[in-house]
Structure formats: structure tokens, C-alpha cells
Write a structure and sequence with these properties.
The protein has 17 helices and 2 strands. It is an all-alpha fold. The protein has a two-stranded antiparallel sheet with strand order 1-2.
Length: 344
Amino acid sequence: MFHERWLVVWSVLVLALAGTGCSIKRVAINSLADTLSASGDVFASDDDPELIRDAVPFSLKTIESLLAEVPDHPGLLLSACSGFTQYAYAFIQADAEIAEPDDYERSMVLRERARKMYERATRYCLRRLDLRLPGVESALKRAPGTALAAATREDVPALYWTGAAWGSAITLGLDKPEFIADLPAPRALLSRALELDEVYEQGAIHAAMISIAALPEELGGSAARARQHFDRAIELSKGQSAGPYVTLATAVALPAQDRAEFERLLNLALAIDVDLHPGWRLANVLAQRRARFLLSRVDDLILAGEPPAEARLTAGDRAVVALVPRAEVWVRVPFAPVQMGSLP
């Protein structure tokens, strides 16, 4: 049971950190680190976001406690990287969005907290990447186009999560020149991951690239490229991941003030049966919660007027609608601007 498993984990952690025998202590810590970095399905399959909100901080702090003892454990570094990224989006940034209409000041405080947590995640990510690619952070800032040439398919999870965490921090700091200056780094990380394993986690990298590609043109963005990544993410996930629909709605349709497409994409997200794949239930529950909130505010978000001429229901959308009731599901845990895996 979940409670019993974490009681055992905590008991072993206390004994490991308090132990006097160095070799026994190190064996216990490494064993526990291996177990924690390999876990996560219990969270991902849950349908109660509030339960997970309360449980995940304990998991993350446990991971950090272990990293203080084994700072170069690859699995723990990746778990910290992905876990803080997911928690920041799923709960802190989501709360900021919900608070904004009624309490702008609180919304800004929450956004800043989410940004700091993305930065925290990025530090763990870069430590993980540095184990395989020494000096990678300075290389990415100096020459992002060539910094990752030595990366292999084995590095794809670390490349993906580093790009996701770093990119998420930047999207919450676009008013600060120092953040914009780092933008080529997450682009390079995700692009290299895409080159090495385009189908990773059934389209997770394409889904993450939607938000990066949809940035303003002056920052190198392109709505057309964002749509290309969206189309491929939908294809690889067989249309059953709610995240890409919500991301395209907020990253492309909303800035274009395209109400027809905005509503269509969010309703496609809501049409997904969250029980078809238990391992990704939590992700779709959270994405659908966000879709409902956005639809409830559509009159405030979209100005009145005629929809753009390009608003349309594509053949691909019609195929997705037909797929929903009976699809074979292959999805990830999605949180815009990232497509996420299991929480730690």
C-alpha cells in the first residue's frame, strides 16, 4: 500500500542517515536511492490531484535528503529534475493561473515561486547531464548549437527534462533580459533529444516543443512550427493525451484571439477518457481541469469579434474525435509546457 511503502522508505532513510557504519550507511542510501528513482506509478495513476499535491513534497524532500549523501546518483538527479518541474506546473503555476482574475498580486507571487522551482529543477537536471557531458552548462550558454554533439540516445531523458525545466523557467521570466538570453539552450536540448529519439515517450518532446516554438517571432518562434509539433505529438500519442490540446490552445489560439480554435482544442482535451490508461490518469485529469477553467473564462480571454479565417476543424481533428471512444492509448503525463512522466 502507498502509506506503508513510504513508511518503510522513511524508516530506512532515518536509519541510513543516522547510521555510524560508513559502508553500511552508503549501501543503505544507494539501495533506497535506486528504489526511489525507479518509482512513480502510484502517483501517475491516481485520480485525486489534491492527494498527490499533499504527498509529492515529502517525496521530493526525501530525494533531496538522499542527494545530500549521494550527490552524483543519476536516478535521483533525474527524479529531482522531473519531480520539481512537474510539481511546479501541476500545482503552483496552475494555482497562479486560477488566482489571476481575482487576486493578481497573489498570482504574481505564485508565478515567481513556480519560476524558482523550475530553476531548482534545472540545477538538478544540469548536474545529471554533467555526469555524461562535463561542462555542459557553460557549453550550452557559449555555443548551444554544438554543445550536445556528444550526447547519445541514452541521454534523451536528461536532455528532455533539462530542456523542459529550463524552458519553463524562461517562459515565466520573459520580462527579464537574462532569461531571454538563455532561450537557445532549452531549444538546443529539446532539438537534440528530438534528433536522437523522435518518438520518446510517444511524442513527449514534440509536445514540449509546442510552447517553445510558439514564442513570439522576435524570439525565434513560429506558430506554424508549433502546429507541426502539435500534429506529431497527437499522432504519436494516438490523440489520447490532453496536454498538447491545452498547450496549443493557450500558446497559439489564445494569442491569435481565435475563439473557435481555442474552444475546439479545449473540448477535444475534455473528450479524452482518463480511465483508458490508468498510468496516465492523473495527467489527463489535471489537463482537463485546466481546460475547464479556461473555457469558463473564454469571454474574458477572447475579445468579441469575427474568428480568424484559418479557424477550422481539420481532418486530423475529425480522426481524433472518432478515435476517442475506442483508441489504444499511448500517452504521457502532460503539463504544459511539458509532457510529463511519472511523479516521484
